[in-house]
Amino acid sequence: MSPEDTKLMEAISSGNPPLNVAFLPPTHPADFSVLRVLKGTVPEHALLQSAVQNCSGVHLEEGGDYLIFANRPSMAGDDIAPIKGSFKLDDSEYTQDELRKVEFLFPSKR
After folding, report:
1. Half-sphere exposure (CA, 13 Å, Cβ side) for 46?
2. What is the pTM of this model?
3. Closest Cα to residue 81, out of 45, 30, 41?
4. Structure confidence at residue 23 (pLDDT)
5. Which of 19, 41, 82, 86 sits at a 20 to 30 Å CA gap from 53?
6. Backbone angles phi, psi at 97, to 5 degrees
7. Rounded CA separation 8/5 (Å)
8. Using an 8 Å Cβ cutoff, are 87 and 69 in contact?
9. Sequence-distant contacts of 59-63: CB under 8 A, at least 24 apart
C-alpha cells in the first residue's frame, strides 16, 4: 500500500475517517425477538444486523429494546438491517416523542 493508503486505513480503523469517505465497520448479526410488527412480516430465522454506516443508522446493544425500521431482506437468508429512524427504547424525552409519532402513524389495532 502507498503511504496515503496506509494513512487512510489507519484513520478508518481508529474510527476517525476523513469526511466524505464511506465506511462500514464490522458488525455481528444477532438473534432477536419481536413484540409487535407495524407493517409487513418478519422472515423466519432472520438475523438482525447492527447498522452503523458513516455514523448513521443505529448501533444495537445486547439486551436493549429497540423500535426498528427496516426493509424486508431482498433475498432469503439476508440479514435485516435497521435503517434511519430506528432507535433504542428507553425513558428519554427523545424516545417518548418518537413513540408518539409512530403511534400516530401506526395506531394500535388492539
Report:
1. 20
2. 0.59
3. 30
4. 59
5. 41
6. -65, -45
7. 5
8. no
9. 60/30, 61/88, 62/30
Q: Cα–Cα distance between 88 and 64 in angstroms, integer?
A: 7
Query: Are 52 and 25 spatial neighbours (Cβ–Cβ below 8 Å)?
Result: yes
Residue 56: phi and psi, rounded to 5, are -120, 180
- DSSP letter at 30 equals B
For residues 24 and 45, give the distance between their C-alpha atoms in angstroms, rounded to a whole number: 24
Side chain identity at residue 102, one-letter code: V
Please report, for the chain, the start and end positions of each structural domain, with discontinuous segments joined by +: 25-110
Establish how many alpha carbons lie within 13 A of residue 27's alpha carbon, considering only the half-sphere containing its beta carbon.
22
Cell of 106: 401506526
3-state secondary structure 61-103: CCCCCEECCECCCCCCCCCECECCCCEECCCCHHHHHHHHHHH
